[in-house]
Specification:
alpha/beta, eight-stranded mixed barrel, rod-shaped, binds ligand C2E, binds calcium ion
């Protein structure tokens, strides 16, 4: 036991002792003579119902205990002694009754309650008697004296009762007496005043009508009491219902809030999970696994935002750089795919370094990258970035001990009002990149709308080209190759022509590069070869005088690299029965130089078959002159550009002269291409150029017209008179025609 609690027992026993003394005194002085039947009735009612009955003043939180009123009544009618004894019995009985009903009341609590009632009533009676004389005589005093006496009675009873109870409770709860009294007993003052007032009223009524009448009227009073109780209960019920409804509503609202909170928590959880999976999805769905760069999907997303921004703000510009590595395949082929992958990763890091955080660099797949530049001031900004990227990529990469160099071709497109779809932006940048490749790689090209039209046309052309092979829309034209001194036709160059069903004639300069790129060239090429061989053989069958004519057929780089090229040619020669010595294959310098070893071997095998080879467009590609002698090549064809510019100045004539000298030194013959004027013809002869080809002699013509050309072979009108004497009896190269004759 701590603090005040230890005082609770001594305090209780002290109270009990004092109360016992008060009770003994009261019992001793009890005026037995005055205790009539009415007293017994009052005592029974007080003990039996007093504590059970409380009168509540409607809408006020004040309860008037019937006990208080009845004991005050006893005090006023039968004196303090009777009131003390009745109060003790009532208090003890009420406590025992509550305990029986299961309300926990300590034994010392029961004693305390009894003692409290005994002492407070005893002291009240003493106080009233001291102030106003015997209690039983109060009712006869003046109304003001009577009311004052009632007030004193109520006040003393209240102070003593609440004071002692507060001490007891304070000891029990270990709190201060004052705080306990203020919290629990201060509001009870009204109860005592009301109790005293009712007692006073009852005394006055009994005085007027007699106590026996009251006893008779008790059932009526009881009914009135029950009615009041019922009324109070109704009020309670309805207010309880209102309260319940309100509580129900509040509970409902609370439950709703709770549910909402649960829902919000759940949403938060789902959101976090979504974010996590989104993040995961982002390492997986929006990024390139190899380089970690954003992939096409993410770039498209960013592009969408850029397009949106440009639409809202006229001063916002963006650009897309489409970047494709040049000759990446070579690295993969020579160093292996692992090294190729490493290179792509290193390139990704370099690209990231040379860009601003607001830019996006993405890998689109393979060796293709795209860069989205935001907030540009001008087209020059994009060009500067493209140049910087190309510069940065030029520095060597170190891959497993190898120093690797790479370059890139870049296509650039700038934001424009007509861009609504990111795919179109990428497509245009891709088209511009393609142009950069076309124009020789390792450069950038800016997209213009013409490019798009050309790209669309290209796609259309590609489809048409596939169809053209099936539909046999091609025809071979023949352009004579003339011995410049005699003006005699020594052979023809086969040049393919495409008769497009809608577009009419399509230039080979337009479709051959496309055919080469799409691989369709192998089919077209072998068809031209077969057709040219067949035609040449046909001519010699028709006119044995033409049995010495050579046929030159162009071979694209791609055809030249075909592994079964030799077998294919052999088969065609077999099929057509053409002497291999009459066939000349024209290959460009770049096709030869691209893979010198393989080219040399191929050229050697062709020579072994008796087939001749020419280098086409000589002077325009990158031929290594020091290598040239290693290749078994028969003829150099001087590109038309040198011939046409010969007259412009000595410098161009010098180039032609150098090529002729070189060819002579290497024991190769020379054909000048694009001879258009008699003057050019004259100059070429002066330079000892053996053969020529050009509009001066004939444009490429269909087979029938070509035959007529040889049969007439009359170029006299275009050749100066002085030359005529020498051209009348041309000497054809000595050609072994046994192969054809056998057939
Ligand atoms: P190329 O092999 O250099 O053919 C010569 C081109 O020059 C031909 O153009 C011819 O018509 C043109 N030409 C000839 N003389 C003159 C002249 O005096 N002045 C001018 N301005 N041009 C002249 P064409 O037939 O349009 O062929 C263009 C190119 O297409 C050829 O250039 C060749 O590279 C390619 N080609 C043509 N047919 C075939 C083929 O069957 N297979 C392959 N792989 N390529 C072919
Ligand atoms: Ca040619
Ligand atoms: Ca040529």
């Amino acid at each position: 036991m701590t603090g005040r609690k230890k005082f609770i027992i001594p305090f209780t026993w002290l109270m009990v002792a004092c109360a016992t003394a008060a009770c003994v005194y009261s019992a001793y002085h009890l005026p037995l003579a005055r205790l009539d039947l009415s007293f017994i009735f009052l005592a029974v009612v007080t003990i039996a119902f007093g504590s059970r009955l409380t009168i509540q003043i409607p809408r006020a939180k004040v309860h008037i205990s019937v006990t208080d009123s009845l004991i005050f009544l006893t005090l006023l009618v039968y004196g303090g002694e009777a009131a003390v004894l009745l109060a003790v019995v009532e208090a003890c009985y009420a406590s025992l009754r509550l305990r029986k009903k299961g309300v926990f009341i300590r034994l010392d609590g029961i004693f305390f309650n009894g003692a409290l009632m005994a002492l407070s009533i005893f002291l009240t009676a003493v106080a009233v008697e001291t102030c106003f004389g015997p209690e039983t005589g109060l009712v006869e005093r003046t109304p003001s004296q009577f009311i004052t006496a009632l007030c004193v009675m109520a006040l003393v009873q209240y102070v003593i009762n609440s004071g002692l109870a507060a001490v007891y409770t304070a000891c029990d709860t270990n709190e201060s007496v004052w705080a306990t009294w203020r919290a629990h007993y201060f509001p009870a003052s009204a109860t005592f005043v009301a109790g005293a007032a009712i007692a006073g009223l009852l005394v006055k009524i009994t005085g007027a009508i007699g106590i026996s009448s009251i006893i008779t009227a008790t059932p009526v009073i009881f009914i009135v009491y029950l009615t009041h109780r019922r009324y109070i209960d109704d009020i309670k019920t309805s207010s309880a219902q209102v309260e319940l409804a309100e509580r129900g509503r509040a509970e409902l609202a609370e439950r709703h809030v709770e549910q909402q909170q649960c829902y919000i928590v759940e949403l938060e959880r789902v959101k976090t999970e979504l974010e996590e999976s989104k993040e995961h999805f982002r390492h997986a769905a929006f990024h390139d696994a190899l380089t970690g760069l954003p992939n096409r999907a993410l770039l498209t997303d960013h592009l969408k935002l850029s397009i949106e921004m440009t639409r809202r703000r006229a001063d916002h510009h963006f650009a897309v750089l489409f970047l494709d590595l040049d000759r990446f395949k070579n690295i993969n082929d020579s160093l292996g795919h692992a090294a190729g992958d490493r290179l792509l990763v290193e390139i990704a890091r370099r690209l990231e370094l040379c860009l601003r955080p607001s830019d996006t660099v993405a890998r689109l797949g393979g060796d293709e990258f795209a860069i989205l530049l935001n907030g540009l001031d001008s087209t020059e900004d994009a060009i500067r970035v493209a140049e910087r990227v190309q510069q940065d990529l030029m520095h060597p990469f170190y891959l497993s001990g190898n120093e690797v160099y790479t370059t890139a071709s870049i296509g650039i497109t700038i934001s424009a009002a007509y861009y609504a779809d990111p795919e179109n932006v990428l497509r245009d940048a891709d088209t511009a990149m393609y142009q950069a490749k076309e124009k020789g790689k390792t450069r950038y090209e800016l997209f213009d709308t013409g490019m798009h039209a050309r790209a669309v046309l290209r796609l259309q052309l590609e489809n048409d080209l596939r169809r053209a092979i099936e539909n046999r829309e091609f025809e071979v034209y023949y352009q004579p190759i003339v011995a410049l001194d005699t003006c005699r036709i020594t052979g023809f160059e086969a040049l393919v022509r495409w008769h497009h069903p809608e577009r009419g004639f399509v230039s080979p300069a337009e479709f051959i590069p496309l055919a080469e790129e799409t691989g369709l060239i192998t089919e077209i090429g072998s068809w031209v070869l077969r057709e040219a061989c067949r035609q040449t053989r046909r001519w010699s069958l028709d006119d044995p005088a033409l049995a010495m004519l050579t046929i030159s057929v162009n071979l694209s780089s791609r055809q030249f690299m075909q592994p079964d090229l030799l077998a294919q040619i052999k088969q065609i020669l077999d099929e057509t029965n053409l002497n291999p010595r009459r066939l000349k294959l024209e290959i460009t310098e770049s096709a030869v130089m691209a893979n010198a070893e393989a080219a040399a071997s191929m050229l050697g095998q062709l020579r072994n078959l008796g087939i001749q080879t020419s280098i086409d467009d000589f002077g325009t590609g990158y031929s290594s002159l020091s290598y040239l002698h290693r290749f078994p090549i028969d003829t150099l064809k001087i590109d038309r550009s040198f011939v046409s510019r010969m007259s412009e100045g000595d410098e161009n004539a010098e180039i032609v002269r150098t090529i002729i000298t070189l060819a002579t030194n290497l024991s190769m013959s020379v054909i000048a291409e694009g001879v258009e004027t008699a003057e050019q013809h004259e100059r070429l002869k002066e330079l000892d150029c053996e053969y020529g080809q050009g509009y001066l002699f004939s444009r490429p013509v269909p087979a029938a017209a070509a035959l007529a050309l040889v049969q007439n072979n009359d170029y006299t009108s275009r050749v100066p008179d002085a030359m005529l004497a020498r051209t009348l009896n041309p000497t054809f190269p000595d050609i072994d025609i046994t192969h054809e004759e056998i057939s």
